[in-house]
Write a structure and sequence with these properties.
By secondary structure, this protein is mainly alpha-helical. The protein folds into 2 domains: about 35 residues; about 120 residues, Four Helix Bundle (Hemerythrin (Met), subunit A). About 75% of the residues lie in helices and about 5% in strands. Bound molecules: heme C.
């Protein structure tokens, strides 16, 4: 009796492992299923895409720093976080990359960098918390709007 139970247990285990292996494997070997992501694909060389994504991650660091600074009532820290994603970092955008991106994307990107500078200026001037939060809300609206429309693909 005990043998039988163990045997059944082993069978269930083996079947389970095969099923998991099969599912895992099929996901790994079939990456070309049609995507349900219908956003516009912007195709860049891998290094160009990396550069833009690095700039994106920096902007998220800035947003985090601003929120932290404002929450801690540390406006200089929040200002520094905002400035880190201002026009100064966009100015070095590679003209090669610029050529490949659609105008609305570039415009929204520039507006976003300018928005960070405006927020930094506002904080430098000791603006009040509600105003700063309104500015930040507008800014994060840009992030959301752009992400809803575009995605970045790597040229192969
Ligand atoms: C002008 C368009 C645009 C704006 C504005 C924009 N993004 Fe992005 N961002 C993108 C695109 C396109 C991607 C790639 C998305 C994809 O391929 O799925 C991306 C990706 C990212 C990523 C992922 C980075 C990675 O390493 O994969 C982060 C984080 C991010 N954005 C943060 C932000 C934040 C924060 C803001 C606003 C302060 C912002 N973005 C504004 C277009 C934009």
């Amino acid at each position: 009796m005990r043998m039988k139970v163990t045997l059944i247990g082993t069978c269930v285990g083996v079947v389970g492992m095969i099923a998991i292996g099969f599912l895992g494997n099929s996901a790994a070997v079939e990456p070309h299923k049609p995507s349900t992501d219908t956003r516009q694909r912007l195709v860049l060389a891998p290094a160009q895409r990396d550069k833009i994504l690095a700039e994106m991650r920096l902007m998220l660091v800035s947003v985090g720093g601003i929120v932290q600074g404002v929450a801690a009532d540390d406006l200089p820290a929040a200002e520094q976080a905002a400035r880190a994603s201002g026009m100064a970092v966009a100015a070095d955008v590679d003209p090669q990359i610029e050529k490949l991106l659609p105008q609305p994307f570039l415009k929204l990107g520039m507006q976003t960098h300018m928005g960070f500078d405006m927020l930094a200026d506002q904080m430098k001037a000791g603006g009040d918390q509600a105003d700063i939060l309104r500015g930040l809300a507008k800014l994060t609206g840009n992030c959301v709007a752009c992400h809803a429309v575009y995605r970045l693909d790597e040229a192969r």
